[in-house]
Amino acid sequence: MSPGGPEAADEDIIARVLDGDTDAFSALVRRYQRRILRLGYGFLKDVESAEDYAQDVFVKAYVGLAGFKGRSSFSTWLTRIAYNAGINAKRKAGRYEPLESEPVDTRSLSPEDAHIRAETAEALTKAMAALPEKYAVCLDLYFREGMKYEDIGAATGFPVNTIKSHVFRAKRDLREALGAGEGSV
Amino acid sequence: MTCDRFLAALDGIDNEPLPADLAIHARSCRACASESAALRAAIGLYRLPDLAGSSDITPRVTALLPFMPAPRRTVSMRDWIITGFVIVSSIVLVPLLAEFRALKAVYGSGFTLPVFLALGSLVTLYGGLFVMSHLDDFSRRLKAWQIHQHGRAA
Questions:
Q1: What spatial distance separates the first Cα and last Cα of chain A, rounded to whole Å?
Q2: Within chain A, how many helices (H) and strands (E) appear?
Q3: Which domains does chain A have, with CATH numbers?
Q4: What is the pLDDT of residues B35-93, one digit of tens each?
Q5: Which of B33, B90, B118, B132 lies in disulfide reach of B26, CB 3.0 to 4.6 Å?
């Protein structure tokens, strides 16, 4: 396993970058670009703009890498940079759009899975619509990115209990929707 | 545990495997196990897709990095203060040591001079490193102070 390779821990890669191995940073970009691109799309609603945004986020992270002290995971630290960049970008581009509006490729799914996915997306979109706009990103980070409450709180600055209660309600709605869907399939 | 409590707890757990008490209930209750599995599967499917139409941005980012200021390891102010404290303490305490006094009595300035030269060099090195590594910071603070003074004068 090479220290900057796909299996290397984030901390090892960061240590290499700080020791002058600039190329090692590309492993972090490859590892987290999907999340950052999706967040960018949520803020900017355009794939090309999301790519520019993701590029800016990674460059900011690179320049400020010495400021990463390991108090949170690198992914949380990077998400915080991305979230702040998104908030700034949003001032110019409009509101955060829950990610289900993104163009997704579901061709690899079976018809049944695609149906469940559509039900899930619909239930979560409804749950997000019932929230103040600023919390939509929390549900995306939880459901889409698999982040934990604490990490979402650290990345966005929202209280963990608030995030928890929104996720709780969204899950309950989702279970109800899936239960209702079972009968109709 | 009742099924109602299981489902409420299921909605409340974080993105992690079922806690032990819920897992035990799920093993003995087919309906709750199925509910939990369905929820996980649905969320798993929701996570699947990438942003369609986007490309790998790694080459774009790596092409820019050589033009950016390279990140450097930094020593925290706390570490600077602790190091300074240790150096100053050693300058104060070393002459009080019985060994130091015994050697001083035997060799006189032939012993004390090199010791104090060494300690002095250490202080100079520390001070030099501190100033050099904080030049940007000092410069920023000076500029901010000048702007503040200019604002007050105006």
A1: 47
A2: 8, 0
A3: 10-93 (1.10.1740.10), 106-184 (1.10.10.10)
A4: 888 888 888 877 766 666 678 889 999 998 888 888 877 777 788 889 889 988 888 88
A5: B33
- pLDDT value of residue A38: 85
Residue in chain A nearest B45 by alpha carbon: A117
Q: How far does the CA of residue B13 sit from the closest CA of chain A (Å)?
A: 8
- Give me the residue from B14, B47, B61 closest to A59, CB to CB: B61
Please, what's the largest Cα pairwise distance for chain A? 59
Give the Cα separation of B142 and B121 in Å (integer). 28
Longest Cα–Cα distance in chain B:
89
Amino acid residing at A179: G
Q: Is A10 helix (H, G, I), strand (E, B) or coil?
A: helix
Give the count of alpha carbons within 13 A of A145, CB side only.
28
Q: Which residues pair with B51 in a beta bridge?
A: A104
What is each CA distance from B43 to A3, A35, A84, B83, B127, in whole angstroms? Answer: 33, 16, 26, 51, 57
Q: Which among A120, A130, A112, A116 is positioned nearest to A166, based on CA atoms? A: A130
CA distance A152 to chain B (A): 11
CA A96 vs. chain centroid, Å, equals 12
Nearest Cα of chain B lies from the Cα of A131 at a distance, in angstroms, of 17
Task: Report DSSP letters for B91-107, one per residue.
Answer: HHHGGGSHHHHHHHHHH
Helices then strands (H, E): number in chain B?
A: 8, 0
Amino acid at A120: T
Q: Is the pLDDT of residue A57 over 90?
A: yes
Distance, first Cα to last Cα, chain B: 72
Residue type, A148: K
For A33, the closest chain B residue by CA position comes to B57
Tell me the pLDDT tens digit for each residue of A87-96: 888 776 656 6
The alpha carbon of B93 is separated from its chain's Cα centroid by a whole number of angstroms, namely 32
Instruction: Calculate ∠ Cα A128-A129-A132, nearest 5°.
Output: 80
ipTM for the predicted complex: 0.71
